Amino acid sequence: MAGRRFMEQALSDWMRGTGPDSDIVISSRIRVARNLSGLPFPLLATNQQSAEVLDHLTAVVDEPDFAAINHFHKFSLAEMNDTEKQVLVEKHLISPSLVNESRNGFVILSDDESISIMINEEDHLRIQCLYPGLQIREAWEQASRIDDVFETHVDYAFDEKRGYLTSCPTNVGTGIRASVMMHLPALVMTQQINRILQAVTQVGLAVRGIYGEGSEAIGNLFQISNQITLGQSETEIIDNLYSVVKQIIEHEKAARELLLSDGRTRLTDRVCRSFGIMKHAAIMDSKEAAQRLSDIRLGSDLNILNHIHSSELNELLVMTQPGFLQHIYNKSLSTDERDVYRARLIRETLSKSKSKS
């Protein structure tokens, strides 16, 4: 595969923990869904038709106004092996749908991995922008800029009443999904999370796990996103999400203060136990790893642990996934073998950890 660094480097820029409110908001994402006018949507397209879509859209990437946005690399999924594709899914650079359901699937990645453009996924075109911390408006500005360039060169499927037409009816209208990935351990520990998430769904937002729809919320990581794309403008969708996320941040901060004031010793014990287990365990499954990493992240954010960076924990979250483990050790691993190699990788990484400045 060309551009090996997309595979070798687990840490994308959005994982570095440098954005606003990054102690609670891991990342902000905008995804824009578009289809070309006059061609069947991907689920009904023939190989020839999906190849035509690919030709139209990749030609746009070669235009000067597109090159001005960033430096991009193009990859055909047909040229990747299963492990390579799984690694890109685990890094959130492509979707499982692009891997499992696409015909003539293709991805275009920016140098810093903040931009991922998928072709022939559920829709002809999926533009994704990922930023660290709470930068949902900034991510939208970038996605909108890319969308505008495409729209000057190709005709989108658009209806005056319904807006942009998409394969899934839930995306019709603006065609955008705005989401933030939040780390909410204190709300979970203080048993407030269900009440908060119920309130979130009542204002038209969805709550999912780390890999989006259908995935489990492990490691106290929750993805909050809009459900409505029709009848609201892009600005209204983003402002609503931003407002709700800011409220969740305040609730999480209050819960963390409560844990520190009412149970600091117990919290410290939990954090240190998780760190000790991670540093010495011989076997570690992915679910336990995610939970232990959550404890350690909380300890780092609250200065209970002063010798580990959030970026190291973000990197471990990716590196301990099945695809990346197999890529690192360059061999196919059974579930039991992955648990052994995961523990080994965690031990080695934590032993090299340097003190925070």
Automatic annotation (TrEMBL):
Family per similarity comment: Belongs to the ATP:guanido phosphotransferase family.
Reactions catalysed according to its record: L-arginyl-[protein] + ATP = N(omega)-phospho-L-arginyl-[protein] + ADP + H(+)
SUPFAM superfamilies given in the database record: Glutamine synthetase/guanido kinase
Organism: Paenibacillus apiarius
Annotated ranges, domain Phosphagen kinase C-terminal: 24-255
Record HAMAP family: Prot_Arg_kinase (MF_00602)
Activity: how regulated: Appears to be allosterically activated by the binding of pArg-containing polypeptides to the pArg-binding pocket localized in the C-terminal domain of McsB.
Binding positions for ATP per the UniProt entry: 27-31, 92, 126, 177-181, 208-213
Motif, RDXXRA motif of the pArg binding pocket involved in allosteric regulation: chain positions: 338-343
UniProt keywords, alphabetically: Allosteric enzyme, ATP-binding, Kinase, Nucleotide-binding, Transferase
Name of the protein in its database record: Protein-arginine kinase
Pfam families: ATP-gua_Ptrans (PF00217)
Documented EC number(s): 2.7.14.1
Single GO term (MF): protein arginine kinase activity
Enzymatic class: transferase
InterPro entries cross-referenced by the UniProt entry: Arg_Kinase (IPR023660), ATP-guanido_PTrfase (IPR000749), ATP-guanido_PTrfase_AS (IPR022415), ATP-guanido_PTrfase_cat (IPR022414), Gln_synth/guanido_kin_cat_dom (IPR014746)
Biological role: Catalyzes the specific phosphorylation of arginine residues in proteins.
NCBIfam families: PRK01059.1-4, PRK01059.1-5
